From TrEMBL:
The gene is glnS. GO terms for molecular function: ATP binding; glutamine-tRNA ligase activity. Residues 460-534 form the tRNA synthetases class I (E and Q) anti-codon binding domain. It holds the Pfam family tRNA-synt_1c_C. It comes from Robiginitalea myxolifaciens. This is Glutamine--tRNA ligase. Monomer. Residues 28-338 form the Glutamyl/glutaminyl-tRNA synthetase class Ib catalytic domain. Gene3D superfamilies: HUPs, Ribosomal Protein L25, Chain P. InterPro entries: aa-tRNA-synth_I_CS, Gln-tRNA-synth, Gln/Glu-tRNA_Ligase, Gln_tRNA_ligase_bac, Glu/Gln-tRNA-synth_Ib_cat-dom, Glu/Gln-tRNA-synth_Ib_codon-bd, Rbsml_bL25/Gln-tRNA_synth_N, Ribosomal_bL25/Gln-tRNA_synth. L-glutamine binds at D67, Y211. Keywords: Aminoacyl-tRNA synthetase, ATP-binding, Cytoplasm, Ligase, Nucleotide-binding, Protein biosynthesis. Its EC number is 6.1.1.18. PROSITE patterns: AA_TRNA_LIGASE_I. ATP binds at E35, P36, N37, T230, V270, S271, K272.
Length: 562
């Protein structure tokens, strides 16, 4: 489907209507405005793809602007992580901007509002101000400081800036309407005192602007044409417009705020506060833990950027908040990895196989296709020898006719190798099978063209040569929460639903070529799933993360639970 023929989402319809009404396409500018108080998560991916996608569609610049107005929660670590994530997703920003770049301009404008009688310093406690706000059905009452003189307001505000007052002693409020049906318009706070060092301005400032004051004015300074926010900011739009009404010049572009739905995803949480709680309380091992819904966590787990972009495009842009099934994200992971991940063999739950009629010292190298979905991927050679590893679950002493793997007296084909037949087993003192002894047909080698090689057997197993295999640690990740909506239960804490079995660590054997793999390399372990080399890997210890299973196993689990 061509770009032109794709149906437009409602945000694109807004832009198209503006263009039809005479808006200059050269004046289009968008922005992605994260607050650097945590790592970006999958919910942010929709916003990233929306804003940067609009930039690509209309050949318009997109700013990356950090809403860094709260030094108590923001860190340079988060700034760098956000930049890394946006770039990894494949997007380039035009300008790297910070709300802190505009602190002086915002302050100057605040003084101008004071001089015009549109802002005042309030010296009440936050509790008193909250009580005076009223309710949605009852008007608020004026602060006793609402009618301070301009001179007194300017004096106090400047003293606040100079650090002469304690935190919580004063705030600057906009003077709007304490009877407004929109609670946000009831003299909102514009500045608060914070004696904390900022990650960029250090201790230059003792007062910091609130989001509602900063947001629209930053858009105006940057001449952003369309300021796109999640639905929670829809009630804020009248305040966004009120602040702009006081400042905009007719010869400059006026930004337009529009809202779209936040997309939550099942079996996880996307609140930064709750994600930070998971990190700080040790439920995960960091913001980039592969169980986390953060973009860095998904990258470490092995997702491709294309999978996340395709996921964002599939769920689209909506006007109502909803929960998207994790299965859809995993579907896109599988679909993209199927195209790009080389096929290799690894055994995660090993059982020894000895081929008794294979010569003791013989070994051979067999040709194996790297990716049947990609002809250009070529092939590789894998070693074969007398002793092999197969999966424990691929053998049974006795099995019914529907078991198409190895059983006593039964035959299977070893992938890219020979047909083998199970003859007998060894067991330990507890009765556990330790070794399966087999015979092989020397003329049944895959691809040899012999009649024996073309003989049909129903089962094909993956394997690795015991003599040549490398050892690896494999981390099998599962859903972080056992409940699809862990934070939507009024009577329970979301942590009550943490999946205690979300990580299983096993020792595996892998084909020797994988010992050269580097952190971030992705593979399909045949018949098992998609895996990625973890940064924890060392020259002496290879570590793989399971990205996703070959098939959706959770759908069956949840169906049984109904």
């Amino acid at each position: 489907m061509s770009e032109a023929s794709k149906s437009l989402n409602f945000i694109e319809h807004i832009v198209e209507e503006d263009l039809r009404n005479g808006f200059d396409p050269e004046a289009l500018r968008f922005r992605f405005p994260p607050e650097p108080n945590g790592y970006l998560h999958i919910g942010h991916a929709s916003s990233i793809c929306l804003n940067f996608g609009l930039g690509l569609r209309y050949e318009a610049p997109v700013n990356l602007r950090f809403d860094d107005t709260n030094p108590a929660k923001e860190e340079t670590e988060y700034v760098e992580a956000i930049k890394r994530d946006v770039a990894w997703l494949g997007f380039e920003w035009d300008q790297e901007c910070y709300a802190s770049d505009y602190f002086q301009q915002l302050y100057d404008w605040a003084e101008a509002l004071i001089e015009r009688g549109l802002a005042y310093v309030d010296s009440q406690t936050s509790e008193a101000m909250a009580e005076q706000k009223g309710t949605p059905t009852q008007a608020g009452t004026d602060s006793p400081y609402r009618d301070r003189s301009v001179a007194e307001n300017l004096k106090l505000f400047r003293e606040m800036k100079e650090g002469k007052h304690a935190e919580g002693s004063h705030v600057l409020r906009a003077k709007i309407d304490m009877a407004s049906p929109n609670m946000l318009m009831r003299d909102p706070v514009m500045y608060r005192i914070l004696h904390k060092a900022h990650h960029r301005t250090n201790t230059d400032w003792c007062i910091y602007p609130m989001y509602d004051w900063t947001h629209g004015e930053s858009d105006y300074i940057e001449q952003v044409s369309h300021s796109l926010c999640t639905l929670e900011f829809k009630p804020h739009r009248p305040l966004y417009d009120w602040f702009l009404d006081q400042l905009v010049s007719k010869d400059k572009l006026r930004p337009k705020q529009r809202e779209f739905a936040r997309r939550n995803i099942s079996h996880t949480v996307v609140s930064k506060r709750k994600l930070l709680q998971l990190v700080e309380q040790g439920h995960v091992k960091g913001w980039d833990d592969p169980r986390m819904p953060t973009i860095s966590g998904l990258r470490r787990r092995g997702s491709t950027p294309a999978a996340i972009r395709n996921f964002a495009e599939t769920i689209g842009i909506a006007k109502r908040d909803n929960v998207v099934d994790m299965n859809l994200l995993e579907f896109h992971m599988r679909e993209d990895l199927n195209k790009v991940a080389p096929r290799v063999m690894a055994v995660l739950d090993p059982l020894k196989v000895v081929i008794e009629n294979y010569p003791e010292e013989q070994e051979e190298w067999l040709e194996a296709e790297n990716n049947p979905e990609d002809e250009s991927a070529g092939s590789r050679e894998i070693p074969f020898s007398k002793e092999l590893w197969i999966e424990q679950s691929d053998f049974k002493e006795e099995a019914n006719r529907k078991f198409f793997r190895l059983k006593l007296g039964g035959e299977v084909r070893l992938k890219n190798a020979y047909i083998i037949k199970a003859e007998r087993v060894d067991k330990d003192a507890e009765g556990n099978i330790t070794t399966v002894y087999c015979s092989y047909d020397p003329k049944s080698k895959s691809g040899s063209g012999t009649p024996e090689s073309q003989r049909k057997v129903k089962g094909t197993l993956h394997w690795v040569s015991a003599k040549h295999a490398g050892e690896a640690e494999v981390r099998l990740y599962d859903r972080l929460f056992i409940d699809p909506t862990p934070d939507q239960h009024e009577d329970k804490d979301f942590l009550d639903f943490v999946n205690e079995d979300s990580l299983e660590i096993v020792k595996a054997y892998v084909e020797p070529g994988l010992l050269e793999a580097k952190a971030g390399d992705r593979f399909q372990f045949q018949r098992l799933g998609y895996f990625c080399v973890d940064p924890d890997s060392t020259p002496d210890q290879l570590v793989f993360n399971r990205t996703v299973t070959l098939r959706d196993t959770w759908a069956k689990i949840e169906e049984k639970a109904k």
